[in-house]
Amino acid sequence: MIQLGISAFYHDSAACIVLDGKVIAAAEEERFTEKKHDHSFPVNAIAYVLSEAGIQDINEVNEVCWYEDPKVKKNRVLKTFNKRFFKTFRNRCRYLYSYYFNSPKTLLRKHFKYTGKVTHTGHHLSHAAFSYLTSPYKNAAILTVDGVGEWETITISKGSNDKIEKLLSIDFPNSLGMLYSTVTAYLGFKPNEGEYKVMGLAPFGDPKIYYDKLNSIFSHTSKKFTIDQKYFTWEYSDKVMYKYLFAELLQLLPRLPEEPIKQEHKDLAAALQRIYEDKFERLLKTAKNLVKSPNIVLGGGCAYNGVANVLGYKYFKSVYIPYAPSDAGSAIGACLYNYKGERKDNSNPYLGPEYSNDEVSFLLSQFSDKINVKKLPEEQLFIQTAKLLNEQNIIAWFQGRMEFGARALGNRSILASPRDASMRDKLNMVIKKREGFRPFAPSVTAETASKWFNINQSVPYMNIVVKAFDEDGFARFTKFPAATHVDGTCRVQTVNKHQNIKYYLLLKEIGKLSGAEVVLNTSFNLKDQTITRTPNQALKRFLESDIDFLVINNMLISKK
Amino acid sequence: MSKGKKSKEELERQKKLEEEFQKKLKELQKRDPFVYKNF
Q1: Cα A379 off chain centre by
Q2: Distance CA A266, CA A200 (A)
Q3: A243-285 per-position pLDDT tens digit
Q4: Residue A328 to residue A300: CA distance in whole angstroms
């Protein structure tokens, strides 16, 4: 059974190939087009996954699994537009043109001459399936939260013996994801991208200043909520998401991207994050009441909110968040939902392209006037890299298959020592040229994680934020100031040898020199770039930046 | 002054806030990055 999974047209378009229930390859379109969060039909990602799986003719695929139901989505869009017929006329024409002339079937025929079966799986059902069916649990509560799918913005389901039963949903326009994106835009960041910045900004603010004002837009019933739409344009505009009344409510003007970030912006970020956490906690409680399971899986783009995710432990013994909980992962979710065989282990996030030593050597030979290359046996490579990191060098680390999902998990990463606070500023200002308030994350060997971080479960995909000191209150975060946020928290990645042996062995060598098997890990990209995919990109970015060394496979590269 | 009635200063402040808001809105509408695809 060969399935081709696709998600597109919202954000993070992606494609995957699933063979008899096992994911063989998956990639986001942005890695090929270099447009961040690219939402276009993923022509390049589809071509890649087909070639990785050795499929010459797309019509060998048994079914294409599309991650949402276009008919139900059309129903929502038109019903919403009908409330303001004239105001939405242009958007309605645009939408209907796209619905009829750029449907998944039409585009598959146009680009790949595919004429086979196309199945549609609901947007939130695809999220739920990806989270639950890649988790280690047989039974779990499933909570999905995002901007909007067809109608749903939040669902709670029960996962039991590989079946998913939806128990509750909250529909558009009542959306926590859209509120988060709206305030992201209000604070001068790009929605669907800048939400991380808002989360990073929040600990610098006082949540009390705007909390009551923001909270006043919500009305609650016992399990659900509504959001007063008088403040927002979500039902008819896709440009500016708020109205003047929102400014009047907050008594604060929106910030333009080029304007300085002031204390009031930090306070608004803090209030938004607190509101999100409070509403999320209500949903966790409801999920616990509806599904009597010790486990929960989280899905949807909001499951990247690692600060809120940790609240899951208040109600559940075990929490799982997959490696690509936003729309990209739904390409896989749609396939796994439609696969009727036995569940396979799909916990491996390294599903993208890799490059042989021959390919890399050939590329490097063309730059011999600019670089020195040292080929090292594997053991020496780890020893040398650990030594260079210990000497406060910044190293771009490119190994094996590219990660699927928003996080670099040790195959397309920039690594540095977390022990000196000035390293954070150097990375933010000089290398990544981004806002100075944004934190970096540490990777740590799974078996030593609880020694340095308040952690009781492995976090292989870097999606839970934990305190960097343990319960006795001893502030161990002072040991890793470059990878600890201002509030003493870290978005930790735990690494074990089964998950990523090379990265694990590197951490072991780092431990021998520094006394802690911990390294600062940030994605291998420079300002406004997508994460590095190819050795060519890696080399170009290395030469353009102040990164000290580049390691590709077993080659240690320095500048001349 | 009866409860709920705004003072002159308050009304002026609101007017100024609205004017500033509309100015910023105009500027934002010219810019592409603030598109949020929900349909």
Answers
A1: 32
A2: 10
A3: 999 999 999 999 999 999 999 999 999 999 999 999 999 999 9
A4: 10
Q: Name A34's bridge partners.
A: none
Q: Which of A189, A9, A35 is nearest to A525 (CA)?
A: A35
Domains A2-120 and A357-559 share a fold: no
Topology annotation, domain A357-559? DHBP synthase (3.90.870)
Q: What is the pLDDT of residues A84-115, one digit of tens each?
A: 999 899 889 989 999 999 999 999 999 999 99
Task: Give the Cα separation of A172 and A192 in Å (integer).
Answer: 17
User: A351 — phi, psi (to 5°)?
Assistant: -120, 5
CA distance A151 to A175: 10
Q: Which residues of B touch A11 (CB under 8 A)?
A: 37
Q: A254 to chain B: which residues are within 8 Å by CB? A: 21, 24-25, 28
Chain B CB contacts of A191 under 8 Å are 34, 36
Please state which CATH number belongs to domain A136-321.
3.30.420.40
What whole-number distance in Å separates Cα of residue A437 and Cα of residue A202?
10
Option in B21, B33, B39 nearest A244 (CB): B21
Taking a C-beta distance cutoff of 8 angstroms, is the pair A185, A191 a contact?
Answer: yes
Are the C-beta atoms of A63 and A118 separated by less than 8 Å? yes
Q: Determine the pLDDT at residue B29.
A: 81
Domain boundaries, chain A: 2-120, 136-321, 357-559
User: Is the pTM value of this prediction over 0.90?
Assistant: yes
Q: Which of 3.40.50.10950, 3.40.50.1820, 3.30.420.40, 3.90.550.10 is the CATH number of A2-120?
A: 3.30.420.40
